[in-house]
Write a structure and sequence with these properties.
Strands 24-30-29-25-26 form a five-stranded mixed sheet, with no helix packed on it. A four-stranded mixed sheet has the order 16-23-22-19, with no helix packed on it. The chain has no helices and 30 strands. Helix content is 0%, strand content 44%. It is rod-shaped, with a radius of gyration of 44 Å. The chain is mainly β. The chain starts with a strand and ends with a strand.
């Protein structure tokens, strides 16, 4: 074997290939030792102390490394010669990538990088982060990412990798609903594609279908329900629907005293402001079956008169047809007593 010295100008990298177990350093210089198997020189005779680098920890070439991979690397123009021993080439780390796309609203993609060339083992970094021994990065968002591969000789290769995007499902929990206290209602969710899982919450007032797009719910108070859908790719989307609960307001007074004292002068058939009804149709009969009062849109305003004259005190009979806010019809029959 022969040692060749080639003059070069303005170089910023030195490669030294030692057929024995040379040492590898980086960041400012290189370190080489003469272990007796080969003689060499850089403008002067080699010695145990000459040409040692300062400020870095040298790394020994791993045992069994092929001769073609035994190289020393240095950054910085501290000589006007490059030394080569044997057949040397520049560091060249290549890689292949395995990508898993990420949802557009969740960072759940992954990148797996496999390196070759240079001198193993390798370490890997993503987007300027800390280096790690594994070439796999999980919980990666969609879009561009910078992967840096470093070999044991401190050689670096940087690549830009694009993680594909997976659109999250388009979902709707359906229109908001209004019900009367004690009623139930079916929600009307929808989703693009075929959901892998469907989850509604809160679960405590779901009567049935909690894992379907159309659950039946029966809240006692106004409640907002959240529908969360996960598709086959693991992408997640959510939407909300509110169910407003109106208090039950059908309450018929069984007596009233229309004597003009300002107390109980009107016959009341709804309470809680009548919010749970859209219409009240009232018919009142005397004990002989004759109609004494009819109102197709009753507003709690009968004062115990018939054609402008007070009806006699006594018991009267009524039929009330309520139309509730949700469209349900309710008929109530009973009697009411008038006392003055």
């Amino acid at each position: 074997n022969a040692l060749s010295i080639f003059p070069v100008g303005n170089f910023n990298s030195v490669v030294f290939h030692d057929a024995n177990n040379g040492y590898i350093g980086c960041a400012g210089g290189f370190l080489v030792t003469n272990d007796g198997g080969t003689t060499w020189r850089i403008d002067q005779t080699a010695s145990a102390t000459n040409h040692t680098s300062i400020g870095f920890a040298p790394k020994k070439v791993p045992a069994g490394t092929p001769a073609a991979n035994r190289r020393l690397f240095s950054v910085g123009a501290f000589s006007n010669h490059i030394l080569e021993y044997g057949d040397t080439t520049k560091l060249n780390v290549s890689s292949s990538e395995l990508l898993v796309s990420s949802c557009n609203n969740t960072a759940n993609g992954s990148i797996t990088v496999t390196a070759a060339g240079g001198i193993a083992p390798y370490t890997y970094s993503i987007d300027g982060g800390a280096f790690q021994s594994s070439g796999t990065f999980n919980n990666v968002s969609a879009g561009n990412h910078t992967i840096t591969i470093r070999d044991v000789a401190c050689g670096l290769v940087t690549k830009t990798i694009i993680v594909p995007v997976r659109p999250a499902p388009t979902v709707s929990a359906g229109p908001d609903k209004t019900i009367v206290e004690g009623d139930d209602v079916m929600l009307q969710g929808s989703s693009s594609g075929s959901p892998a899982t469907i989850l509604w919450s809160p679960a405590g007032t779901i009567v049935s279908g909690g894992n379907t797009l159309t659950p039946t719910v029966k809240p006692q108070t106004t409640t907002t329900y959240s529908m969360t859908i996960t598709d086959a790719n693991g992408c997640i989307s959510s939407d909300n629907a509110a169910v407003t609960v109106l208090p039950y307001c059908l309450k018929v007074m069984n007596a009233f005293t229309p004597n003009g004292d300002g107390m109980n002068d009107r016959w009341i058939v709804t309470n809680n402001g009548g919010l749970c009804v859209t219409n009240v149709y009232v018919t009142v009969f005397n004990r002989y079956g004759g109609e004494v009062y009819v109102n197709p849109n009753y507003q709690n305003n009968w004062d115990g008169t018939y054609k402008g004259n007070p009806v006699p005190d006594g018991t009267y009979y009524y039929v009330i047809n309520y139309t509730l806010f949700n469209g349900r019809k309710v008929t109530v029959k009973g009697d009411v007593t008038i006392l003055r």
